[in-house]
Automatic annotation (TrEMBL):
Origin superkingdom: Eukaryota
Keywords: Membrane, Transmembrane, Transmembrane helix
Annotated protein name in UniProt: Glycoside hydrolase
The keyword Transmembrane appears for this protein: yes
Keyword presence, Ribonucleoprotein: no
Transmembrane segments: 12-35, 42-60, 107-129, 150-169, 181-202, 243-263
Length: 344
């Protein structure tokens, strides 16, 4: 099979592909970790599933573009020419046919991640502010958490379906508002909630582990072991005392990604006017390099989730036991290591 991508762009394309596969491997490692820790329905697990889906879609789109560069860009050129003013061009760019399907797969995963972020922020706030009647509220909180997780996967599918309605597509303002509403609302509310959590932390000046002990761990609420941060469950939990800090880093990255997406939409709107469209398809190596670099932010979520949530002591120990060499390090008794079930 002849690769149509210009020779001058092959190095950049291969580099982005390698990076994308690294991110995909990180998603797979996180899925392995949540299964080993029996947390298949936790927020970290759901994030990992979404990053795996989105990164897989991105890799498929990259491969399609590498092999059929000339054909893809020529079809996209005429697609834009024939649909000048279409609001879909603002969010999907010139994507057409298979590329458009792959774009919406990635768009779906980003929206699911945004709702999961908001839901997780509310759940953290619930655990930290410790409402009265805690046992009752914990039961209600678990039900709400399950409902929120289901909504996180269903609502983006509904929104994408609504974007295909002719009445919505007839209005650029309505289309873009609907396309961006979920991401913008989820991240805005999530940020406000997170700020509230951090203010609470600053005011109390307590260690973060003291905060999270009631959230991911099913331990005695009156147990003083949380003071030292060394209770037996937390030592091997997939979560550690820095959960709020780790969550903050993840949220900031997702917000930065959303800002980039908005800037990209503005650029697409400005570039998809008839008076600024080129006379012929741009098949140059420079254009190809820019195209592939734009894939990097989208696939980086898999790497981010692994670096933020997969680097706790328990996770590193689990990875060593699962895929590391079989030689036991000095002082570590991995053959006695068990992974507890953590209710989250």
């Amino acid at each position: 099979m002849v690769v149509q991508l210009p020779d001058g762009a092959l190095a950049a394309a291969v580099g982005v592909q390698v990076y994308s596969f690294i991110c995909l491997i990180c998603s797979c490692l996180m899925i392995l970790l949540v299964y080993k820790h029996r947390e298949r329905d936790s927020y970290v697990a759901l994030f990992s599933y979404c990053t795996f889906l989105g990164t897989t879609g991105s890799i498929a789109q990259q491969l399609h573009t590498i092999v059929l560069w000339n054909d893809v860009k020529t079809e996209q050129f005429y697609h834009v020419r024939n649909h000048v003013g279409s609001p879909e061009l603002a969010i999907a760019g010139p994507s057409y046919g298979l590329d458009l399907i792959l774009f919406y797969i990635q768009f779906y995963s980003y929206n699911v991640e945004a709702i999961l972020t908001l839901s997780w922020a509310f759940s953290l706030a619930f655990s930290i502010f410790k409402p009265s009647g805690l046992n009752l509220h914990q039961r209600v909180g678990r039900k709400i958490s399950i409902f929120a997780k289901v909504v996180a996967f269903l609502l983006p599918a509904v929104l994408i379906s609504l974007l295909q309605v002719p009445a919505v597509r007839a209005s650029t303002a309505a289309f873009i508002t609907l396309a961006d509403f979920n991401l913008a609302a989820s991240l805005t509310l999530g940020s406000i909630t997170l700020i509230t959590i951090l203010v609470k932390y600053i005011q109390t000046r307590r260690r973060l582990h003291r905060w999270t002990v009631r959230y991911p761990l099913s331990t005695d609420l009156n147990d003083n072991s949380g003071e030292s941060g060394q209770d037996s469950d937390s030592v091997h939990s997939i979560y550690d005392g820095w959960l709020v800090v780790r969550f903050t880093i993840a949220l900031l990255f997702i917000e930065a990604f959303q800002i980039l997406a908005i800037l990209s939409e503005i650029a697409q709107v400005n570039n998809n006017k008839e008076e600024v469209l080129p006379e012929k398809p741009d098949l140059s190596a420079g254009h190809a390099v820019v195209d592939f670099v734009e894939y990097i932010p989208g696939v980086s979520t898999g790497l981010l989730v692994f670096l933020v949530f997969g680097t706790t002591q328990a996770c590193k120990r689990t990875l060593y036991v699962s895929i590391g060499p079989k030689i036991r390090p000095s002082g570590e008794k991995f053959h006695h290591f068990t992974i507890p079930r953590v209710e989250f």
